[in-house]
Specification:
The chain is mainly α and 281 residues long. The protein has one domain.
Length: 281
């Protein structure tokens, strides 16, 4: 029960980060917002770990994979923050939910895991859900929608690499390195798009980093009490908070095609999780 509470809390908190990013995107570049997300997340994560988990920190045993993992999440964030700066948060997140399906598709190649035909069918059906949302040929498919799908693709790589690192590095160390990689890379390019934020905007960016830090720490804590495979389906709860925030802050509400596509993607994802769960028993 404690694991479920912590994990659900994380998926309630993280959409607030997205809402702040969308709000700031009306005045600031999505790339500058991504930099701020990483910079402040590293600041608050380092502070938290130094005071509460200092004894658990050791140097990474696989720094190359850590860097690749950090880059995967960095590009996922770039794609997602650009996407929500143009289209609704709910539509972006719905398209990004192809992530678990991408993970399944890639696991057979990169992890040498056996993926049966039933799970392949679920993956194909899940991708059809993205087509329902995007409706290519019926409406213009824009770069923001493609970027949202790109978020799911990069996140799929991120999960695959996380599985590889699970047995070598501590989750807290992985969280810190991921933040450092994103902040380091973004710092090289952010001067080209930099707009001097106001004091209020700095405060919002710092708050965005706090939400990101709290959300990921809650996920890490939840994994102390239950396996990732058991908690993974709870990530779909994020769409509930996402829709509520999008409606009340930006007056965005998903159309019927987004809801239908979301239903198809979630059902496919839950079926994949179920098959993976019983395969591990």
């Amino acid at each position: 029960m404690k694991a479920i509470f912590l994990n659900l809390s994380a998926w309630i908190v993280l959409p607030f980060m997205d809402a702040i990013a969308k709000y700031l995107s009306s005045d600031l570049s999505f790339f500058q917002i991504t930099w701020a997300r990483y910079f402040f997340t590293v600041v608050f994560t380092t502070f938290f770990m130094f005071f509460f988990f200092r004894k658990q920190l050791n140097f990474s045993q696989n720094i190359k994979l850590q860097i690749i993992r950090g880059l995967s999440l960095f590009f996922a964030n770039i794609c997602f923050f650009y996407s929500i700066s143009v289209i609704s948060m709910a539509k972006s997140l719905t398209l990004a939910f192809v992530g678990p399906l991408v993970t399944t598709a890639l696991s057979s190649v990169l992890l040498n895991e056996k993926v049966g035909y039933k799970r392949w069918i679920a993956v194909i059906i899940g991708f059809s859900g993205t087509l329902i949302v995007m409706r290519p040929g019926l409406i213009e498919v824009n770069l923001a929608s493609i970027s949202a799908v790109g978020t799911g693709v990069f996140y799929g790589f991120y999960v695959i690499i996380t599985r590889k690192l699970h047995s070598t590095d501590s989750p807290l160390l992985t969280l810190l390195i991921t933040g450092l990689v994103g902040a380091f890379i973004a710092s090289f390019f952010v001067p080209f798009v930099w707009i001097n934020p106001t004091a209020t905007q700095w405060s919002w960016m710092a708050l965005m980093g706090i939400f990101a830090c709290i959300g990921h720490i809650l996920i890490i804590l939840s994994l102390r009490y239950a396996d990732a495979s058991k908690l993974a389906p709870l990530s779909y709860f994020e769409i509930v908070t996402n829709i509520i925030l999008g409606y009340y802050i930006f007056s965005d509400f998903p159309d019927k095609f987004t809801f239908i596509g979301l239903f198809v993607i979630i059902i496919s994802g839950l079926y994949v999780f179920k098959r993976e769960y019983y395969q591990k028993i």
